Amino acid sequence: MVWKMVALPLLLTFLLTVSASGTERKEIDLRDYDDELMRDLDRTIKFFEPDIVAKNVEGAKQDAEILVEGFQYTEDYFSKKENAEDAVEISQRGLRSVAAALAALSDSDFDKASASARDAAETCRACHDIYKPLKK
Ligand code: HEC
Fold first, then answer.
1. Contact 93, 71 (CB under 8 A)
2. What is the Cα–Cα distance from 80 to 95, expressed in whole angstroms?
3. Which residues contact 99 (CB under 8 A, 6 or more apart)?
4. What pLDDT does 7 receive?
5. pLDDT (tens digit, 9 = 90+) per residue, 26-62?
6. Whole-angstrom Cα distance, residue 74 to residue 34?
7. CA 116, 117, 123, 125: dihedral to nearest 10 degrees?
8. Is 40 left (phi over 0), alpha (psi -120 to 50) or beta?
C-alpha cells in the first residue's frame, strides 16, 4: 500500500515536530538542588504503582510519604526561583496525584490508585522536560 509508505513518515515527522516544539526548556541555576532526594524519588516511584497493584497498602503508603516529601521540596525550591511558576504548578499536581492515590487506597480502589500513581510519575517527566539539564 503506497499511501501507508507516505502517510507513516508524514505522521512521524508531524509528531516529532509537535513534541520538539511542545516544551520550552528553561535554564536555571541548580547548584543548590538536592540530587540525593531526586534519587530517592527515582527509587520510590518505581515501586509506587507496583505496590498498589500488589495491594501492598503499607508499602504504597511509605512510598507516598517519600513522594510527598519530594514534591514539597520541588514546590518550595521552584517557588523561590524567578519565572518558574510552571514547576510549582507541576509539583502541586504531583502532590494532588499522590493524595488522590492515598484516598483511593483507603477506599480499596486499586485501579483508581494506580491511575493516580501513573499521574504522579507523569509529573516527574513534565518537570524534567522543562528543567532537567539534558546531559543529566
Ligand atoms: C518541579 C520539577 C521536578 C519534579 C516535579 C521532579 N524533578 Fe527530578 N529533577 C528536576 C531537576 C531540575 C533536576 C536536575 C537537577 C540538577 O541538575 O542538579 C532533576 C533531576 C532528577 C534526577 C537526577 C538526579 C541526579 O543524580 O543528578 C532524578 C533521578 C530525578 N530527578 C527523579 C525524579 C522523580 C522520580 C520525580 C517524580 C517522583 C521527579 N524527579 C520530580 C526537577 C524535578
1. no
2. 18
3. 68
4. 72
5. 989 999 999 999 999 999 999 999 999 999 999 999 9
6. 9
7. -140
8. alpha
CB 117 within 8 A of CB 97: yes
The minimum-distance atom of ligand 1 relative to the CA of 31 is: 18
The answer to whether residues 67 and 98 touch, using CB atoms and an 8 Å cutoff, is yes
Question: What cell does 114 get?
Answer: 494506580
Spatial distance between the Cα atoms of 16 and 18, rounded to a whole number of angstroms: 5
Cα–chain center distance at 22:
17
> Which residue matches cell numbers 520541588?
74
Residue with cell 524519588: 41
Of 39, 49, 127, the residue with max ligand 1 atoms within 8 A of its CB, to mutate for a pocket test, comes to 127
- What residue owns the CA closest to ligand 1's atom 13? 132
Q: Which residues of 117-127 are buried (b: 16+ CB within 10 A; e: fewer)?
A: bebbbebbebb
Asked if 74 and 91 count as a contact pair (C-beta separation under 8 A), the reply is: yes
- Are the C-beta atoms of residues 92 and 60 closer than 8 Å to each other? no
